[in-house]
Design goal:
This protein is of the alpha/beta class and 86 residues long. Helix content is 53%, strand content 19%. The protein is built from three helices and three strands, in the order E-H-E-H-H-E. A three-stranded parallel beta sheet has the order 2-1-3, sandwiched between helices. Helix 1 (16-27) links the parallel strand 1 (4-10) and strand 2 (31-34). Helix 2 crosses helix 3. It is elongated. The protein starts with a strand and ends with a strand.
Length: 86
């Protein structure tokens, strides 16, 4: 049986995803957890990393948000289940 793909939505500043992975493993659930970029600096810079330098901070943030939104859409479409932690 293939792994179930779970989108783990929500805050990125704690280790709740690692705890969830460990719990699923203990239960013997074959799951692939996907979710937002958990490295805050990487999330902020991804637009410029892919698209090149932007003309100002506003455009840097906008391009980062657009790339992150695309990533989220793709991963959520792959997911069979979504778990959100706020």
């Amino acid at each position: 049986m293939d792994d179930v793909v779970i989108y783990a939505a929500g805050e990125i500043h704690s280790d709740w995803r690692d705890n969830l992975r460990g719990h699923l493993e203990k239960l013997g659930v074959d799951a692939e957890l996907v979710g937002p970029q958990e490295v805050h600096d990487r999330s902020d810079s991804v637009g410029e990393d892919i698209l090149g330098n932007q003309p100002g901070a506003m455009y840097r943030d906008l391009m980062g948000a657009r790339v992150n939104t695309l990533r989220t859409r793709v991963l959520m479409q792959r997911a069979e289940l979504c778990i959100a932690f706020f």
